[in-house]
Design goal:
Two copies of one chain form a homodimer. Chain A is of the alpha+beta class. Chain A is built from nine helices and twelve strands. At the A-B interface, helix 1, strand 1, strand 2, strand 3 and helix 3 of A face helix 1, strand 1, strand 2, strand 3 and helix 3 of B.
């Protein structure tokens, strides 16, 4: 049987069985060392898949650190140390120096440090980052409770719109278009939510594959139904302008567009923090699956092996 | 400037400068968490470079765990947890299940656990493993002292001979040939040395790129000269038989062949442990570079970017 017949997540289920693991399946793996809860995570950026060599290299470096910090944040944690494993073609050293400069700036911003790594030669650039973090209380995808509110940390769909704009390779971009492109190229992990998640959330993950797919994963892991309301999903002014200009449906971008790196989490509806840009987009109910305005919502986000 | 103009290790020096890092450069990165010294390391196996899809998949899984444990052992540590980051073509799920079975067996042997990872789609299989370990005392490459003995943990050159035999794709192999092939396919990290290294070694690393290259790195990092004696370098009966049969020079294999995953370490010559297969192959002196029987020894081992 081919991996594509199972899809990315079916494949992971098979691997979990082989490893007889009960812990695999969250954004990060929590481990106890002494009296501390540490978090391990990894995420990769692949040339021609997640980025092109025509992108600003500092943005590539910034992003690969950010996507890892995003996973730690979703678990209620903060980053400590990173390793960078490179598969590297015989390319310009200066390009890679800029990539590392972007990583360094990101590490300064997130207060963590690259302490090592590995270099192998290959045909396409592959930047694999491993990160160690820490949390006071680990939050995974499995704890959503009936009666919880479903929250997101910010506007969705911007990154996908930014990617499409990038791929148009236009000579001139409008200001709002440049802001969308920036969201795609240099996402910022929502570290401002880390304490809130760790303190209050019952379940949490970051939205990297698109809301419809990621909500499905959270619902499945928690054994609950998520009822979402489309008019509550936060959309940026930039995305609305983009959709008007190019005659697109903003809801489609919010539901299916990936790489937003906003957070999706649940807790009792009362625990609103006015200092955070959190928006309640739904409720947790008994049952299974994800529903939008009462209708079953197909997961239309990203699956590495089920792309048409 | 291209990476190949700098070589793998010149490239790493440039990256260290960009990151302004004083810690990068050892097999593992030691970090303090509470009152514990943890170790972070990563190492990758790439399809068609480190293995072929015709290899037994359990051996590939065993090896990718072993090479990481080897780095931890070289630092005087033991493994705790691993993450597996896969770049995966649309291949047979059963092959990958066997790879994971090999990883599981290795983890059981080394007493560690795969707790998570990541899956991305790509054209060639890339298995990147990140490992967290622990040590009572970290040992790096920098501490070799004048007067130290230079030791290795076992015979060198077997893996390279095994690889050449594999690539011959013979219909029938002799017993000694199968044992050499096994050394290449299923290396075992020298975890029996971990306590000895942590207790006594001033400098240590594993021999993954070949003795001549790795000794050079240790000498450079420690700011010392290593004087080695060729007749002291341990060679297996299998390698000697191989070299006789195929008219090869066993010393060449011991010096230039990589992937032995034996340990190279230095400490006062008196600290011999009769329960370990350690052999003194030289002494640490004032100066720089590596000398074999009094002549300067060129690093002829593996460099990802300086392959002819």
């Amino acid at each position: 049987m081919k991996v594509s017949e199972l899809g990315e997540f079916g494949f992971i289920e098979r691997i979990k069985k082989i490893l007889e693991s009960k812990v695999i399946g969250d954004d990060t793996a929590p481990i106890r060392v002494g009296d501390r809860t540490l978090l391990l995570t990894c995420d990769v950026l692949l040339q021609d898949k997640h980025f092109k060599l025509t992108y600003p290299p500092t943005a590539v470096g910034w992003k690969v650190i950010s996507v890892n910090v995003s996973d730690l944040t979703a678990s209620g944690g903060t980053p400590l140390y990173a390793l960078v494993s490179l598969v590297l073609p015989d390319m310009e050293v200066e390009f890679m120096e800029e990539v590392y400069l972007g990583m360094k700036k990101a590490c300064e911003f997130y207060r963590c440090e690259v302490v090592g790594g590995n270099v192998s030669k290959g045909e396409r650039l592959c930047i694999d980052v491993f990160m160690l973090g820490e949390t006071g209380r680990f939050v995974g995808r499995r704890g959503a409770k009936r009666g919880d509110g479903v929250f997101v940390s910010g506007t969705l769909g911007d990154s996908r719109a930014g990617l499409e704009l990038l791929l148009m390779e236009k000579k001139n971009y409008e200001d709002f278009e440049l802001r969308l492109i920036e969201k795609h190229l240099r996402p910022t992990a929502r570290v401002d939510f880390s304490k809130h998640i760790s303190k209050y959330a019952n379940a949490s993950m970051d939205i990297s594959d698109g809301l419809s797919s990621d909500a499905q994963k959270l619902a499945k892991a928690s054994g609950v139904k998520l009822s979402l309301f489309s008019e509550r999903i936060p959309l940026s002014q930039e995305l609305l302008t983009f959709c008007k200009k190019y005659r697109k449906d903003p809801l489609y971008y919010a539901l299916s567009g990936g790489e937003d790196y906003e957070l999706l989490f649940t807790h009792t509806p009362e625990k609103l923090n006015p200092f955070l840009s959190m928006v309640q987009i739904g409720v947790v109910e008994e049952g299974e699956g994800v529903y939008l305005d009462g209708s079953y919502l197909e997961p239309t986000g990203f699956d590495h092996f089920k792309v048409l």
